[in-house]
Amino acid sequence: MSSTARCSMPPAAALMIAVLWLTGCATAGSDPRAPCPPVVAYSAADQVRAAGEVEALPEGAMLVRMLADYAVLRDQARACK
Questions:
Q1: Which of 57, 48, 38 is nearest to 66 (CA)?
Q2: In whole angstroms, what is the distance from residue 51 CA to residue 49 CA?
Q3: Element (H or E) spanning 36, and its range?
Q4: Residues 6+ apart with CB under 8 A from 38
Q5: What is the pTM for the complete model shown?
Q6: How many Å apart are CA 41 and CA 44, to the nearest integer?
Q7: Mean pLDDT for the chain?
Q8: Band of residue 71 on the pLDDT scale cut at 50, 70, 90
Q9: Other beta carbons within 10 Å of 39
Q10: pLDDT tens digits along 8-37
């Protein structure tokens, strides 16, 4: 090996950084075929009970807002399929 041949080779650290950088890109979760989250089915009796419990909450209860957000997520999960 001549003295100039070694200068043209990239250092091992540079190769390691390049490999790590490329594998980091490969782990991104962008699979368009990823499964949709399941939507739990509630019986009519469960829904009636839940509605009664929500109506019993005080005016402006945070739980009502959270349930509205959950309803949006359920709609999005249904549309995902």
A1: 57
A2: 5
A3: none
A4: 77
A5: 0.51
A6: 10
A7: 78
A8: very high
A9: 14
A10: 655 666 555 655 555 555 545 556 667 888
pLDDT of residue 35: 83
Residue at 16: amino acid letter: M
Residue tagged 């999960």 (tokens): 77
The two three-digit tokens of residue 55, written as one number: 């109506």
| Total residues found in the chain within this entry | 81
Domain extent for 59: 3-28+36-80
Number of domains within the chain: 1
Q: Which residues contact 41 (CB under 8 A, 6 or more apart)?
A: none
What's CA 7's distance to the chain center, in Å?
A: 45
